[in-house]
Amino acid sequence: MTIRKILTEPDPILKKISIPVEVVGEEEQKLMDDMLETMYDAKGIGLAAIQIGVPKRIIVMDLSKEGEKNDPMYFVNPVIKNKNQDLSKYEEGCLSVPNQFIEVNRPSMCEVEYLDYNGEKKNLKCDNLLATCIQHEIDHLEGITILTYVSKLKRSMIVKKLSKTKANEDRVVL
Ligand code: ZN
Fold it and tell me: How far is ligand 1, taken at its centre, from the CA of residue 159, in Å?
């Protein structure tokens, strides 16, 4: 398993729409292993393939609490089937939008159809954090990040800040 680099806003690749996977083969499984490793390393609870620059409709998540056994979840070609009308509100963070938390309202329940790690067709009813997380990650597959949910002004402020941090990373002091 390899830890990959996570792309951050305003990287244009994050705006790409990801392509469905035809067959879940070795290549996809290796990608999922890398994604999981990368997500754990970055202390995230969800990661979409596009966040490491691969435009495939693949998501990994792990909502287990600290101290609990890891509970990795893999979603290939996830599609949301039913959403309810009630919304739940979470302050969402994103590994591609470091150190920012944005309040987002999303349906509090949904059903998702997907292929698992072995390519088997599955259906999962999600609520609360699980529902929010899967919807956040499916947004990534459509080229959407949490910055879509803030005002234009706030978005440009955040992007400016993130661009600056990036520039600083390359700065050397000798
Ligand atoms: Zn995210």
Answer: 15
